[in-house]
Amino acid sequence: MKYTTFNQHTVNALLEPMFFGHPVNVARYDQQRHSIFEKLIEKQISFFWRPEEVDVSKDRVDFQQLSDSEKHIFISNLKYQTLLDSVQGRSPNIAFLPIISLPELETWVETWSFFETIHSRSYTHILRNLFTDPSEVFDDIVVNEEIKVRASDISKYYDDLIFATQLWQTQGEGIHQAYGETHVINMRELKKKLYLCMCSVNALEAIRFYVSFACTFAFAERKLMEGNSKIIRLIARDENLHLTSTQHILNLWADGKDDPEMAEIAIECREQSTAIFLQAVEQEKQWATYLFQHGSMIGLNKDILCQYVEFIANHRMRAIGLEAPFAITDNPLPWMNTYLNSDTVQVAPQESEISSYLVGQIDSEVSSDEFDDFDL
Amino acid sequence: MTDNSDSYMITVIGHGEFEQQDRTLLQSIERQQIDVHYHCREGFCGACRTRIKKGSVTYLTEPLAYINDDEILPCCCRANSDIEIELD
Ligand SMILES: [Fe+2]
Ligand SMILES: [Fe+2]
């Protein structure tokens, strides 16, 4: 089906699936098939922040005092996060917008992607402060083998879906030749690619980020690189919302609350979905090995980091109805929870006032009896 | 701080039972020194997702994280009856 930026036919968006229905026409939110996405938009906007408002100047002094192995850990993690947010700043838009059929989901994806661009800009803010010329760090991202192997796994599912969608939207269903290869394009295949891509995005935001988050917060536990830590806490808060959105999409499908064919695909692709998560866990463990190849840092070593990845993966996989594959039950890094707690994240005072103002607006729509349990 | 008119009994399977005293169920569980996983404490990340076996809860803020019918988010709710819950 050809994409149109304004579908001129009347469509009842309440009957459309999230993806592969009719293209969206009016951006209206008075009626919603899945109201969760508008709630996520409101929450995300209430989190608005600017990297420039976080003072990272003290980090420059801290950084000079880190050992070489700690510098390697710090910079490598920033490179990896830069890669992840480079992908996330564009891919949900390019992969999902052409096939979305609900205005509230379309706007959620746009809002989500916009925040990823804030994350990308914040890495430049951090690195400019540490180095007179940060280009050496950025340039290494596309040549560093350890990062490249992750990049190809992360972009693979997006690229696959994007290419199949392009063939479908320009040539329709059928068997097509492109770049010397044969491609079978039909709705079932497109939906499978979408399902696997969504699993891969969930694994990216719900698991892949957590090794570098743990290293950042381990520095902060020692009162080092605290400006950076503040920025990463704001990023982690946004990422928590993003992973909630993809968990909703996957569960709406699996529960048969959206497109019935996607419920079948969820069952059919269960093994492949599990494999995507296990592969992400494996890569993160390898990444931990790479980080600590020159030595550990105080409060953190490779083994404990690998246990933490397994612990997080258990939770994330269970949340989308997969089996928790790892034996670990207790959180090996309990102090991580404090850094991931959104109550205590603040930027400049005016920033937190803005966010509470927006939160206040959302709450005013809740009926008064919901406050019966509050004691002020 | 809290009004105790709804001080129901909380049973955490494998950890015994205690009275609800705090603003949120998560705080009541933490007061018992029971290790419970959490991140956002505002109902949007789902990290504290917990199975409820008996009883029911009232939400202080609407949960944004996905929860099944037999699950609750302790960070943003409190019991409105005696409850029995199971941590992962
Ligand atoms: Fe991000
Ligand atoms: Fe994200």
How would you summarize what this structure contains?
The complex is a heterodimer of chains A (376) and B (88). Helices cover 64% and strands 3% of the residues of chain A. With 376 residues, chain A is mostly helical.
What do these coordinates show?
The complex is a heterodimer of chains A (376) and B (88). With 376 residues, chain A is mainly α. Chain A has helices spanning 36-46, 57-65, 68-96, 103-130, 135-141, 145-171, 187-208, 210-221, 226-254, 260-268, 270-291, 302-319, 336-339, 349-363; strands at residues 174-178, 181-185. The N and C termini of chain A lie far apart (55 Å). Chain B is mainly beta and 88 residues long. In chain B, strands 2-1-7-3-5 form a five-stranded mixed β-sheet, with no helix packed on it. Chain B has a two-stranded antiparallel ribbon with strand order 4-6. Chain A binds chain B through residues 36, 39-40, 43, 237, 240-241, 243-244, 247-248, 251, 314-315, 318-319, 324, 329-331, 334, 337, 340-343, 363, 366, 370, 372-375, and chain B through 1-3, 6, 23, 35, 37-42, 44-47, 49, 58-62, 64-66, 78, 88. The complex binds fe (ii) ion (FE2) (2 copies). Residues 88, 116, 205, 239, 242 of chain A line the site of one fe (ii) ion. One fe (ii) ion binds at residues 85, 88, 116, 119, 235, 239 of chain A.
